[in-house]
Amino acid sequence: MVADLAARHELVSDLFTWPRSRAEWDQYRLSDEQVAFYHEQGYLAGVKLLDDWQVERLRGELQGLFDPNHAGRE
């Protein structure tokens, strides 16, 4: 049976880590210009969310879902 991740409220893999310092959090901080643009336009493009290794790992996991014999496919 596939686990229901809706019941989990913590990180469930090593794909992400919580920032441990203010400097680590600051790399995600939007500039005042980005915030203003968002308020004016309602969207913000070009914000990098994932590193290349994370994208590749997610691609690999997603590829497994296309396998007709994948557990939980029904």
Structure write-up:
The mean pLDDT is 90. With 74 residues, the chain is mainly α. It is 39% helix and 0% strand. It is elongated and about 50 Å long.
Q: Roughly what is the average pLDDT, rounded to an integer? A: 90
Overall shape: elongated
Helix residue percentage: 25-40%
Provide the structure class: mainly alpha
Main pleated-sheet profile: none
Distance between the termini: 11 Å
How many strand units? 0
Query: How many individual helices?
Result: 3
- The H/E string reads HHH
Uncertain segments are none
Query: In what range is the share of β-strand residues?
Result: under 5%
Specify Rg, calculated over alpha carbons. Answer: 17 Å
Describe this structure in a few short sentences.
This protein is mainly alpha-helical and about 70 residues long. It has helices at about 20-25, 30-40, 50-65.
Name some characteristics of this structure:
single chain, about 70 residues, mainly alpha, about 40% helix
SSE layout:
Layout: H1 22-26, H2 32-41, H3 52-65
